[in-house]
């Protein structure tokens, strides 16, 4: 269902990403009529340390998630990093605690796709953590996945703070028809288990992964609500389909494993 890499590859050259940094308002709540920018509701504390997990931070404060795909490159959501200089951003990589552990590296460049909700952050130096492999494809409806992130764990905007400990939730890919406004060729519709679990405010850019031969592979970057509600986890969520953007990513990162 989701053999999308060729489609995006054809437009990768035209999709010249801007070396922009994130918007000053990226950390603020979106307007009432904007799409929800997610964290994880009704997940659990991370059951392992994910070497590739990234907390993007400004002034030491987490504002978005990301995934280490090369020792010096991080994939995140475009709306996280459009409009601010790279010098304002640092990444904490490979820890379950957003305030300590892992490796901290400064950003040196930000590259934003011109249409998809996906971006790259280049680090000033390579880190020792093991990057995640980008999957060959995201998979068909029913594919079992996991979403990972820090942040608001209650469904109402501003109803609680972000957790210090990394959260995870096991979920699955569902039919595109369940997500409003989805671009089926480059985005993934992801289930909200029990109709009350899923992404919520602030986890944007963080990974959606699937297990392949006992190893995690990256398929998605958290984008927005799939039903437009300002209350989180009341419907599926939309993720940028990372494998669909492989050609574009490799324009900057070089070959991805």
**What is the chain-wise order of helices and strands?**
HEEEEEHEEEEEEEEEEEH
- What is the domain tally? 2
- Poorly predicted segments: 1-39
Indicate the CATH architecture of the largest domain: Beta Barrel
CATH level-1 class of the largest domain = Mainly Beta
Estimated radius of gyration: 16 Å
Described by the principal axes of the CA atoms, the overall outline is globular
- β-strand number: 16
CATH homologous superfamily (4th level) name of the largest domain = Trypsin-like serine proteases
Helix content: under 10%
- The overall pLDDT average reads 83
Termini, distance in Å? 22 Å
SSE-based structural type: mainly beta
Strand % is 25-35%
Profile the largest sheet.
8 strands, mixed
Q: Helix segment count?
A: 3
CATH topology of the largest domain: Thrombin, subunit H
GO molecular function, one term: serine-type endopeptidase activity
InterPro entries: Peptidase_S1, Peptidase_S1_PA, Peptidase_S1_PA_chymotrypsin, Peptidase_S1A, Trypsin_dom, TRYPSIN_HIS
Family: Belongs to the peptidase S1 family.
Protein name: Trypsin
Protein topology:
Layout: H1 5-12, E1 40-41, E2 44-45, E3 53-58, E4 61-70, E5 73-76, H2 78-81, E6 90-93, E7 103-112, E8 119-123, E9 133-134, E10 144-149, E11 167-172, E12 187-190, E13 198-199, E14 207-212, E15 215-225, E16 237-241, H3 246-253
Parallel strand pairs: 9-15
Antiparallel strand pairs: 1-13, 2-11, 3-4, 3-6, 4-5, 5-8, 6-7, 7-8, 10-11, 10-14, 12-16, 14-15, 15-16
Helix pairs in contact: 1-3
Signal peptide: 1-28
GO molecular function: serine-type endopeptidase activity
GO biological process, one term: proteolysis
